[in-house]
Design a protein that fits this description.
With 414 residues, this protein is an alpha/beta fold. The protein contains 11 helices and 22 strands.
Length: 414
């Protein structure tokens, strides 16, 4: 009898302990129903690096509205590294009092008053890449702070992360954000080292697939211990990743360099077009206050943006190439297709595209353009002109300058 009572006591005790333990089980899944199309916004790093302050951020929010970018779909104003001040005696982070004297909450309120959202930056390591306080060991405090400030987006970097495993570190910040109770988009900025596309879908809303972008169309900048990559190099690094992208979870080839002065107008068009069709987040990195007419026209081309924001969320694929001329396709909702001709070479190329001879088939999503049986109306999305129909009787012929694109939308003829 004593043995039976003892056994029942042990079972009851174990049940109580398990129940108590369950109170501390973390939710390592991201907030759902966020970033159902690739996020669109602006980030301070590419142009300003560590030189950020509250007045500049307010001016960028004003410029996003004034330039038409908000109307084109841009939403986030993201402060990157170096906004940080010190932690207080209890470990809570505070903004740099000189750069952000009004505090981040007041800044978030200002950005929200413009109909926009505020993003912020931290790091999984002990220090950020710019040497400011990282979130390691303070994840739950930082998440609470961001929620109290009204932050909408968190870019979470991977510097000074010695000994950490990426998946575990990002699950920790995800659990902290869930515990804090405010839906925040999580941008996993781990540079693709630990293949975040394989584990990130339930952890974050987007993940970096490469190292940093460099303001160059086709080159690599060697910093010794690390390298930055031009637009074409980063585009090549997306090979094999398209099956991981979709609504709420996106491959992130880093921010845009459009309007930062090193790319030619045609290179800006090519850069923006390719980021749009590969379903990349469209996060501008230039000075919105002083951009010229050409840069504004690129960043606010609503018909190119529509390819990016298409509800299917399918990443484009390259289906042919010849001597520096690449052919890309992206399936769109309602049976539409985007067809892109990208000239990577340093000389002009003649496009001679015979619709009847080209098979365009998405083997992941099992979608066939069927040019031989379906007639499509064609529109050029950069010159805004209708180009007739895609038929088996007439080839598409054009001369494409170096480092430029032709972007076509094909709509089923009714």
């Amino acid at each position: 009898m004593k043995k039976i009572i003892y056994s029942l006591f042990c079972i009851a005790s174990a049940s109580v302990m398990m129940a108590q333990g369950n109170n501390y089980v973390q939710d390592y899944t991201k907030y759902q129903n966020l970033a159902m199309t690739p996020p669109m916004g602006w980030n301070s790093w590419n142009k300003f690096s560590c030189n950020v302050d509250e007045n500049m951020i307010k001016q960028m929010a004003d410029a996003m509205v004034a330039t038409g970018m908000k109307d084109a779909g841009y939403t986030y104003i993201n402060i990157d590294d170096c906004w940080h001040g010190d932690r207080d005696a209890k470990g809570f982070i505070h903004p740099d009092p000189t750069r952000f004297p009004s505090g981040i909450k007041a800044l978030a309120d200002y950005v929200h008053s413009k109909g926009l959202k505020l993003g912020i930056y931290s790091d999984a390591g002990s220090q950020t890449c710019g040497g400011r306080p990282g979130s390691r060991g303070y994840e739950f405090q930082d998440a609470l702070t961001y929620a109290e400030w009204g932050v909408d987006y968190l870019k979470y970097d991977w510097c000074n992360s010695e000994g950490l495993k990426a998946e575990g570190a990002y699950k920790t910040i995800t659990a902290a954000l869930k515990k804090a109770g405010r839906p925040i988009v999580l941008s996993i900025c781990e540079w693709g080292t630990d293949k975040p596309w394989e584990w990130g879908q339930n952890v974050g809303h987007l993940w970096r697939t490469t190292g940093d972008i460099f303001n160059c169309f086709d080159c690599i900048k060697d910093h010794g211990s690390w390298k930055a990559f031009g637009v074409m190099q980063i585009l090549d690094m997306q090979k094999g990743l398209r099956q991981y992208a979709g609504p709420g979870h996106w491959n992130d080839p880093d921010m845009l360099e459009v309007g930062n002065g090193q790319l030619t107008p045609s290179e800006d068009r090519a850069h923006f077009t390719m980021w749009s069709v590969i379903a990349a987040p469209l996060v501008a990195g230039n000075d919105l206050r002083s951009m010229n007419k050409e840069s504004t026209e690129v960043l606010t081309n609503k018909e190119i943006i529509a390819l990016n924001q298409d509800k299917l969320g399918i990443q484009a694929f390259k289906f042919a190439e010849n001597d520096g001329l690449e052919y890309w396709a992206k399936p769109l909702a309602d049976g539409d297709w985007a067809i892109i001709f990208l000239n990577r070479s340093t000389s002009a190329k003649n496009v001679d595209f015979n619709w009847a001879e080209q098979k365009v088939y998405d083997d992941i999503n099992k979608l066939d353009a069927s040019f031989g049986t379906i007639t499509y109306n064609i529109k050029n999305l950069w010159d805004k002109k209708d180009k007739g129909t895609a038929t088996t009787k007439k080839a598409l012929k054009a001369n494409l300058p170096a480092h430029d694109v032709i972007a076509l939308r094909l709509t089923k003829k009714k």
